[in-house]
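Protocol step 6 of 9: fold each sequence in the batch and record its structure tokens directly after the sequence line. For illustration, a two-sequence batch is reproduced in full.

Sequence one:
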Amino acid sequence: MHPVNFLAGDEKNPPTGEDQQILRSSIMELCESRFSTLAIKAGDRAPDFVLTDANGENVNSIDLVRKGPVIIVFLRGLWCWYSHTTLIALEAINETLNNFGVSLVAISPQLHFSPADMGRRQQVSFPVLRDVNSRVALEFQVAWRLPAPVKNKYRALGADLDKMNGADCDLLPMASFFVIDRQGTIVYSAVNADHIQLMSTEDLLIVLNNIPPPRKNRALE
């Protein structure tokens, strides 16, 4: 078994015993902490940011919102099967989003990519932006710090965050997405501490059905 299979979502040969307990317990503890409730919400001003895309080009959030509503999705990294599956689901509706005049960007702390990760990134047509030190995720208050035993277990299973995200990196974003209107206000947000719960079709339809019309600024119920 390749050591990263479980972290990448391959449950045919998941780790057992202590490995599984540590990984599952970390998710449960994060959920029980209610840390996700601290994330910024509908009605809040979205933090501005400038991040680089796969080609090293800067992407400015201010420029994006001037063109129309923006969906921002925070992902753990392309090494994670759950994040990759989310990207593919979003790619399936990206053309529809564009027809709505909506821009879509994904944000991840991953800075360095394996050949397999590069291939996964090429499967989507929207930008996957590099968030150095999870700076933007921290501003959206969706970044959480992995306990040392969990980070060490990730490394043992093949996901070395220091190599992929930069030295001494122990932050990962919770699975989350935000819809931002042309005034830079968050009008819809969804933050899930359990990254194993994949974004459903219903979630995606909620986003589509709640895209704010131009020049209208309101928080959704």
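Sequence two, same batch, same settings:
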Amino acid sequence: MKIKSIAAICKKGKQVVLYNRYESGGTLQQYIGDGMTAYPVSGLPELDEESILTIFDVPEKQREDWFVRVMDAPEGINFEDTDANEKMIERDNLSIIFSGHTLKPLQTRRGLVFIQSRYLSPVSDVLDVLELYERFTPNGTPYIVA
């Protein structure tokens, strides 16, 4: 996981969301994202609003321009390694550039969806073995996990 790539995603919109999820036994697992993504945090102490901006190298004078939110992990999103109802998505090397964004088309059970390639950059160190899966929230909203 590349923290600098996560920082670049968050810096684009000057927004960072820290998701807190308590696992069985009370262990805290944190995730960092921009409101559209969530990447697991490992090997760092518990993060808060100040510490994440420090890690992202946001200068003191620019911090007031940032939106930082700490919240519980969203209900209905399965953060576990597997889900009984997930389906693997085949990846192609095809990319499309639209409105200045590089998009990767993914064939899901509900049709074609597009994700921005930059959202895969934090996991580029394992991209050759990375698998994408389609999952659904309890109310039927699809989401992609790696």
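Proceed to step 7 once all outputs are recorded. Observation for sequence two: Strands lie at 15-22, 28-33, 39-40, 67-72, 87-89, 96-98, 101-108, 111-116, 132-136, 142-145.
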